[in-house]
Amino acid sequence: MSVTAAQGFSAAGIAAGIKENGNPDLALVVNNGPRRAAAGVFTSNRVKAAPVLWSEQVVKGGEVTAVVLNSGGANACTGPQGFQDTHATAEKAAEVLDGHSAGEIAVASTGLIGLLLPMDKLLPGIEKAAAALSEHGGEKAAIAIKTTDSVHKTAVAGGEGWTVGGMAKGAGMLAPGLATMLVVLTTDADVDAPALDAALRDATRTTFDRVDSDGCMSTNDTVLLLASGASGITPEQKDFAEVVRAVCDDLARQLIGDAEGASKDIRIEVVNAATEDDAVEVGRSIARNNLLKCAIHGEDPNWGRVLSAIGTTKAAFEPDALNVAINDVWVCRDGAVGEDRDLVDMRFREVRITADLAAGTESAVIWANDLTADYVHENSAYSS
Amino acid sequence: MSVTAAQGFSAAGIAAGIKENGNPDLALVVNNGPRRAAAGVFTSNRVKAAPVLWSEQVVKGGEVTAVVLNSGGANACTGPQGFQDTHATAEKAAEVLDGHSAGEIAVASTGLIGLLLPMDKLLPGIEKAAAALSEHGGEKAAIAIKTTDSVHKTAVAGGEGWTVGGMAKGAGMLAPGLATMLVVLTTDADVDAPALDAALRDATRTTFDRVDSDGCMSTNDTVLLLASGASGITPEQKDFAEVVRAVCDDLARQLIGDAEGASKDIRIEVVNAATEDDAVEVGRSIARNNLLKCAIHGEDPNWGRVLSAIGTTKAAFEPDALNVAINDVWVCRDGAVGEDRDLVDMRFREVRITADLAAGTESAVIWANDLTADYVHENSAYSS
């Protein structure tokens, strides 16, 4: 269903020849209106890929007619030529979509950093994609943006008479302030750009921003939300925001479930924190501890590494009041040995760590992955 | 030569039975005077092991007669009982060393977090170690503090008529604010506690504090510097500080060279930074980037991952002015593709990354390791 689940959108996914193996590598998502409102959230990495620099400006206008997405190359760290290539991509899409300006075309790219895109393949690919546009093209678009993803990711939810659909790619470099993820969400709700922006920021803050696969932040992260207004229905902002959040949450969970080389999905819940910021800081610190990630991979409920990670933060807590549960067994109580660690069953893919800071009433959930030999293998061989 | 290279010190390393495999696990270092000045630097982790809490207090007094070090258990996250055990360890050492108070005995522990030490073995071990004390015991002491270290680490340097010697252990959890490292340095220079403290803080700041093997900070890090004054010589503070720094630098380099599962030692030099703090922040961010660490393991000069790591910092720089060299080949110039990456020869264990921020004149060097399947293996099996 993906980005064409909502009325007023068409999409396509084709093989333009950017990837040498001939797999699909170019997606086009078009908003057919009547409304063309849009909002976007982008990487907070200060080294931003050309398409991010471009699309940030496009989204500021509040109107997006189409999104061109390519896998097979990130167009990051490519200098002035890279930016010109993104511009040419938008120009080409505007041309084939007749009557639109390049300033309404968002561009997103993913793949290896530091390589120029093969424009001799990409530009004809846009014509091919435009010819393939379909109201049922969402699935193919989702497939065309995959890099090391083992599966394509889509999600759909909605209210009475209106729908939010989306697609995502990402399988590594998943980290705060987003991750190498490209996400396009669409809705036929009749919502203007400021309302879209509010809903999207609220949703990403507690979903994509709390996914931390490997602590590495990408240069290319892009999350777009486009509204066609085709349903003619304007939902309550609260209801709309909640549905956008649900779709983001679903896609974020799929990203963690497909992280490169991972064998475990780790749900880290920090409870009884003094502030939500404290909870997030502690959750991230646990999520990024390589020693703990290795232990989880080995199905070892090594709570000492959890405490050691908490101890590196500035959050409010007393060391001798900390409690930690792994899969609901409180292996650490009052900063020391708690229940028998042999009671912890870690055979399943999902592992739940609960860190109780005993310092307040706030909480947060961060999702992470374990660290495996497969992760090392995939990422030491990526560019070769 | 280790801690007995300097006059006025005796040491021992024995097997007390703390380690189940019967390997040496208890070291004793004694300052025989005439002076017994001391300084210490400890982990900045807020979750501190019992021996750290104890020894911090001991060092504040400025006098240390002896150090008891054990491997085979960290005595961290062990609650009130753990602290009592450390206290009992110091009491026992004071008793067998005749005429000294427990308040002059520093204690350091390393091994698994969350387990109480077997005091029925440790306390008799102290008697055994005291009986084995020798002016040539430095090597054995260095061996007894090993955990997953493949070799023991010692270093010696000095000036005219005076010497600084030291031993270190550590093979993982090496990170800023120190790392799971236990280090004891000794000198026969006639230097008081404030001068020792100044020299030690200055030395650790640019040596042990700039080693980042895996981004994980230990609960037990301890670096002690003891002065016996036995040479009768008081060097210029500048000369003394430089020799202490040289010994720390030597030991820090040995720690990186023996990091768990590593196949590469990565020297990250950040140059032309606006401030030294900026240089250190950027160096650490590069040092901790798992994707880059995997690429280095795969001998892949993936400079895009260097830029992506720099981009997550708050340091002063312009993305399109960044330059990166790997093993002296400037693969990235002005934030984009530079020299041919195929020119980079990465066959050797040492890999040099130079990041030029083009924003000032300050610089810093951080040492790190690659991320390997062996690291994952060692750390997923550590406690089982």
UniProtKB/TrEMBL annotation, chains A, B:
SUPFAM superfamilies: DmpA/ArgJ-like. Keywords: Acyltransferase, Amino-acid biosynthesis, Arginine biosynthesis, Autocatalytic cleavage, Cytoplasm, Multifunctional enzyme, Transferase. Gene3D superfamilies: ArgJ beta chain, C-terminal domain (3.10.20.340), L-amino peptidase D-ALA esterase/amidase (3.60.70.12). It holds the Pfam family ArgJ. It catalyses: N(2)-acetyl-L-ornithine + L-glutamate = N-acetyl-L-glutamate + L-ornithine; L-glutamate + acetyl-CoA = N-acetyl-L-glutamate + CoA + H(+). The active site is at T180 (nucleophile). Its main location: cytoplasm. CDD domains: OAT (cd02152). It is found in: Cytoplasm. Substrate binds at T147, K169, T180, E260, N379, S384. InterPro entries: Arg_biosynth_ArgJ, ArgJ-like_dom_sf, ArgJ_beta_C. Pathway: Amino-acid biosynthesis; L-arginine biosynthesis; N(2)-acetyl-L-ornithine from L-glutamate: step 1/4; Amino-acid biosynthesis; L-arginine biosynthesis; L-ornithine and N-acetyl-L-glutamate from L-glutamate and N(2)-acetyl-L-ornithine (cyclic): step 1/1. Catalyzes two activities which are involved in the cyclic version of arginine biosynthesis: the synthesis of N-acetylglutamate from glutamate and acetyl-CoA as the acetyl donor, and of ornithine by transacetylation between N(2)-acetylornithine and glutamate. Heterotetramer of two alpha and two beta chains. Belongs to the ArgJ family. This is Arginine biosynthesis bifunctional protein ArgJ. It comes from Streptomyces castrisilvae.
